């Protein structure tokens, strides 16, 4: 399926959505969709008989700081029935980085959206469990943003490293070696 066919199907399903083709180095069909129509477009991608993108394989983002729109939210979709892949991108302004959650369309979006929020700070409105996934709950900031400080001086608060003497470590290794025989 090419981008023109996909855009025609999406604009037929959601007439007010102005989708546009996006360049792709790997030849996957890639389109930009407006953020305000993302939920309706996702339902069309899943439900239309000519599309049937039943599998959400991945959600990620790209930060183009200092350019605006700053973020591109990227959804990788698979239609098992039609043997197609598609990439759907949403442009987001840095000061308004939020979209509706797609957990109701694809349940797999749950943890994928949490990961994007945790790393980039892009909010998913209506998400059922908007907690940090990869970083500790008390972490400040979003590590994959281009303006995130590289040199961080933070004492660990979520856990402390296990401290062993060299003799205790050697005894543990030897005990483990004996139990594996």
Total number of domains: 1
Quickly give the structural class. Answer: alpha/beta
Mean pLDDT: 89
* CATH 2nd-level architecture: 2-Layer Sandwich
Radius of gyration: 22 Å
Structure annotation, total helices: 4
Helix content: 25-40%
What is the CATH class name?
A: Alpha Beta
Order of helices and strands: HEEHEEEEHEH
For CATH, the homologous superfamily is named as NADH:ubiquinone oxidoreductase Nqo5 subunit
The coarse silhouette is: elongated
Tell me about the largest β-sheet: 5 strands, mixed
* Tally of strands: 7
How large is the share of residues in beta strands? 15-25%
CATH topology: Beta Polymerase, domain 2
Q: Strands across the major sheet, in which order? A: 1-2-5-4-3
Report low-confidence residues grouped into runs of 5 or more: none
Condensed summary:
This protein is of the alpha/beta class. Helices cover 26% and strands 22% of the residues. The strands form two sheets. It has a five-stranded mixed sheet with strand order 1-2-5-4-3. Strands 6-7 form a two-stranded parallel ribbon.
Structure characterization notes:
With 181 residues, the chain is α/β, with parallel strands linked by helices. The chain has one domain: Beta Polymerase, domain 2 (2-Layer Sandwich), CATH 3.30.460. Helices cover 26% and strands 22% of the residues. The chain has 4 helices and 7 strands, in the order αββαββββαβα. The chain has a 5-stranded mixed β-sheet. α3 links the parallel β6 and β7. The protein is elongated and about 70 Å long. The mean pLDDT is 89.
